[in-house]
Structure formats: structure tokens, C-alpha cells
Amino acid sequence: MESTGKSTFVVVANRLPVDRVTAADGSTTWRRSPGGLVTALAPVMRAYDGAWVGWTGSADDAPAPFSTDDMDLVAVPLSPEEINRYYEGFSNATLWPLYHDVIVAPEYHREWWDAYRRVNERFARAAAEVADEGAVVFVQDYQLQLVPALLRQLRPDLKIGFFLHIPFPPTELFAQLPWRRQILEGLLGADLVGFQREGAADNFVSLTERYTDATAEDRRVRTADGRTVRARQFPISIDVSEITDLVSEPDVVMRSAHIRDEIGSPKHVLLGVDRLDYTKGIGHRLKAFGELLAGEDITPDEAVMVQVATPSRERVEAYQTLRDEIELQVGRMNGEYGRIGQPAVHYLHSSYERAELVSLLRTADVMVVTPLRDGMNLVAKEYVAARTDLRGALVLSEFAGAADELGDGAFLVNPHDIDGLKRTLLAAMRIEDAEAEQRMKQLREHVLTHDITRWADDFLAALIGD
Ligand SMILES: O=P(O)(O)OC[C@H]1O[C@@H](O)[C@H](O)[C@@H](O)[C@@H]1O
């Protein structure tokens, strides 16, 4: 359907919240992508004639503005070179590793920065065009950190919020960035800057004092031109009802029993579900599991690991290297401990339908979430939401944002400490039913009362109500 007109609520994100579906006759339509953010913002979109500005995911793709699900969608085109420099380059080979504790070395290239600036300008112009007088604009994530200031220059009448979905690093790391001042000034164009964790908001505030002309008191930054920018944590969450609805479907319950049969009905099913990303600590958890098998703490009959590794950013070199490393590790473990028809690790390099994922979450006795650094980690929360049966145990890295909220009911680990990780995996496998139930109740109490809708409401109330 064609749109549009002006909107009083505009979301600006690297990706549009839709996937293109091509029918047999070659015609294309758009289907809303799964994901918490769009679910949370959809009702706000409906109420306020909302528009979403973003990239379709394909090169040089610029369909005219269109609407779907009561949202106006405004596509921002990226050329192949911009995809290479802005998306794969500056966003995912400079900022992503820098903001995730330099797990791999960030690359600093001036042509990447130039492309990042140019593309951010394009997003800002698109948002400025679609926003109505005095509209609220909600900018998302590390790909678009210059948009708040660029947009304010074009449209000083707007109320601008920004939310960073990934960690925000401390001074010692952020200081490496040759364009650190420009990024901070970009973010200071917002009225409210949201982070996953309190520490990230603190990092931001002290960095602005150090590298810009702003001054700060508590979480309020005063810019050189006399504006006040607030910084605060708003831990993001999941669409709980989407998961609980799926869990109650008979197919999902049946599929979950099936999966356990298919993997040989072991006593313990351990599960990892991640984008194949070096931040996720997949190698660390495989190593710990392998050592448990090697030391005969567990046998391959007793415990099986399922690792879903969703393909991601496959043209970025560090992701290609990681894939080789993980697949080598899995191959070795299966060669060592597997038998015909019975691998020690079921490694699935694929993306799955939501129903299949929820079935897997219901099958897992131990959910293993061991990122070396993670903004939040929504899979940990999805596991909790799926366990309406109050069973299962969550092993969770203390370096995931989710550890701030789920630390009491989960088994917290430092994934770098392989012996500690082994002990924790064993403890989670050997947990008594009563303790598992008590921990799961505690986890669910938090997740069920802090879903994605609450996150969106809190952020927008803080943005609009100042
Ligand atoms: O968009 P990509 O590069 O495929 O990555 C998936 C997502 O990864 C998340 O962790 C980022 O915070 C999102 O912004 C991003 O969209």
C-alpha cells in the first residue's frame, strides 16, 4: 500500500522492521520481521501515525515509501560501497569490536568514517522529511550515532531520543577512536540517551566531559549551546506473550519432545542459541563442555550440546575466521567423543522459525549463555519466558547486560574461567528439581513484569515527559 504524509512518531534504525517476500509469480510483498523492538513500538506507531526509517538490507534498494501493519516505511538506500564501508566496515569492524571490549581488534579507516558520516546524514535527512512539526524521533543503535545531532540541526523543533542496544565502553577503550569527539557530539544531539546498563550511562557522561565542551552533573549533561541531555539505563527486554503463546501451542510441545528423542534422549540437553559472533563466547562454552567429556565428568550418553549459530555479517573477515574456528572445534569434539548417529555437539549453522526456537528452549535442561560481552542478551530472557513449566537452569555470563537483572536466579559465570565454567555447567546439570523451580520462579517474576512494552513505555515517558 502506498503511504504517506507526516508522522508525529518516527523510528530511525539501520534496518526496516520488514522482510521482503517474493511470491511464485515474482511479485513482492513485505512481512513484519520477528523481533521485540517492532512489537513494542507497533502500538505507538498505530496511535501516532508512526513512520520507520531504515535500510531494506539489499544494495541500492529504494522502494517508494509504503505502509504495512499501520506503519509508514521509508527506505534509505545504500550502495554496495556504502554497505562495505558504513555497515560492514565502520559499524561492524570498527564500532562493534571497540564497544565489545576489543575482543577482536577494531580497524580504523578514514574512508569508512567518511561513509559512516555520509550515510548518517542520509538517515537524518529522511527522518527530517517525514517528521511532523514537534514530532518525537527515536533513533536506534551504534550504526546511527551521528543522527541525533544532524537531525537537530535540520529540525530543532523535534524531540529526539537515542537508544544504544550494545555496550558503551569505558574511557580506556573509547579513547582509541579517532572520531571520539564527533561520535559523542552526535549523541549529544538527543534529549535523552538510553543505555542497557547503568555503567554504560556513566561511561557516556564522563566521556562527554572529557572530550567535548559539555559539563555534567549526575546523569544530566549540559552542552556548550546550553541544552540538557539526559543519560539513563533502560534495560531492553522481549515480547513475553509471543513466547508464551508459542509455548502453549500443541505443535511446539510435541516438537520439543521430538527433539529430545532425535538427539538420543540424553539425561541433559545443553543449548546455546546465538548469532555466530565472536562476542558470544561460543568457543569458550564448547571448550568447557569438551573438557568435561575428556575428564569423564560426564559421558556423551548423558549430556548432549545443541548449538544454534545463526549466520551473521558473513562478509566481515572476523566472522569468517570465527566460523572456521568454531567449526574446527566442533569437528574435533565430534571426532573425539561422538559415535555413529550420536554427535557430542549438534551444531546448526542456520536460522530457524520462532516456533522451532521456542521448542528448543523447552527442550534445554541447561541454557548456556556465555558472551564475553553483550549489551543485554535477549535469548537468556526468552529461555526464562519459555519455561512456563518452571524447569531448566540458566547459565549466564556476568558480562551480559542481562546479568544485572537475572543474576539471582541464574548461575552466573565468568566465561574466561574455563574451570569455573565447567563447575557451573555441572552444577546446573545436577540441580535438584526444587531448586530449579525456585530459581526459575525468581527469574520469571522479573522477566514477566519487565517486558519489551514496559521498556518502550519507560523510554518514551522519560523522553516526552521531561
Ligand atoms: O543488523 P545485523 O548486522 O545483521 O545484526 C543484527 C543486530 O545485532 C544486534 O545486536 C545489534 O544491536 C542490532 O543493531 C543489529 O541489527
From TrEMBL:
GO terms for biological process: trehalose biosynthetic process. CDD domains: GT20_TPS (cd03788). GO terms for molecular function: alpha,alpha-trehalose-phosphate synthase (UDP-forming) activity. Transmembrane segments: none annotated. InterPro entries: Glyco_trans_20. Pfam families: Glyco_transf_20. Belongs to the glycosyltransferase 20 family. This is Trehalose-6-phosphate synthase. It comes from Phytoactinopolyspora alkaliphila. The lineage of its organism: Bacteria, Bacillati, Actinomycetota, Actinomycetes, Jiangellales.
